[in-house]
Structures are given as C-alpha cells and as structure tokens.
Design a protein that fits this description.
- By secondary structure, the protein is an alpha+beta fold.
- Strands 1, 2, 4, 6, 7 and 9 form a 6-stranded antiparallel sheet that branches. The protein has a 3-stranded antiparallel sheet with strand order 3-8-5, with helices on both faces.
- It is elongated.
C-alpha cells in the first residue's frame, strides 16, 4: 500500500472557480506518485473554498455557478450576516463553500484519473485572492 501526500500551494487571483486547477494538481501528484490503482482525495483546506467535480462545459462554471451562488448567498449587503459584525466581510463565502462542498474522491485506474465523460475537478474560491493550499492524498498501489 502506497500513500502519497503532496501539499500544493496555489495562488488565487480572483473569486470563483478555477477551471480545472484541481484536476491539474491531482494529475501532477498522480504522476509523481507512480501509483496505478488507487483513490485520490483532493481537499480545498480552506473554509471559504471548495473542490467539486462537474462537467467542463463552457459557461457552466464561469457564469452559471457564480450567478447561482450569488443568489443563494449574496455578498451584499454585508451587514445582513451576523458573522460580518465581527469585522469580517466573508460570511457569504462560508455559505457558498457549504453548498459546494469540501473535497472530492476519484478512482485511479491504470495510472489515470477515472472520470465519466466531461468530468473534471474544479477548485472554487469565494473569499478573494491570496495563497491557498490544496491537499492531495493518494492511497493505493
């Protein structure tokens, strides 16, 4: 049984989902590990960020999810959220993360991420640009 746990740093420069960033990080870690049959966990490691699997379709993440999430948990008015009365202004980012989730697990088959058609891993950040970490844990042979 092999365990591989690189911790990746990524620079987030904007809000929203980073297209395929999670998939690229996972593929890079998989290649370094040499594992052929396994499971890989990809975790955002931040309370205002998400890792999700979805279709890599034009517009779906760039526009549709951002609009939908903003309707569910709008950033403004900042005073609406009790959390923001503490001096923070990111209560909406915490809620968006809860809706989108914390992490994903993907099978590795014959040394490749085993996705369905169009599936990719996406990293979503809802609280602004700064250095973030992503945990990738591969367990298998």
């Amino acid at each position: 049984m092999t365990r591989w746990r690189p911790q990746q740093s990524i620079r987030v420069t904007a809000l929203g989902l980073l297209w395929r960033a999670g998939c690229l990080l996972a593929a890079e870690a998989l290649k370094e590990s040499g594992v052929r049959e396994a499971l890989v966990l990809v975790n955002a490691m931040h309370i205002t960020a998400s890792v999700v699997i979805n279709a890599d379709e034009s517009g779906l993440h760039h526009h549709d999810y951002e609009q939908w999430l903003e309707k569910l948990a709008p950033h403004e008015p900042v005073s609406f959220y009790r959390h923001n009365r503490t001096g923070e202004d990111n209560a909406d980012a915490h809620m968006k993360r809860q809706v989108m989730g914390r992490e994903v697990v993907v099978a590795i088959t014959q040394g490749k991420l085993d996705f369905g058609p169009w599936e990719q891993i996406f990293y979503g950040e809802f609280d602004g640009g700064r250095r973030k970490r992503a945990l990738i844990k591969i367990i298998g042979e």
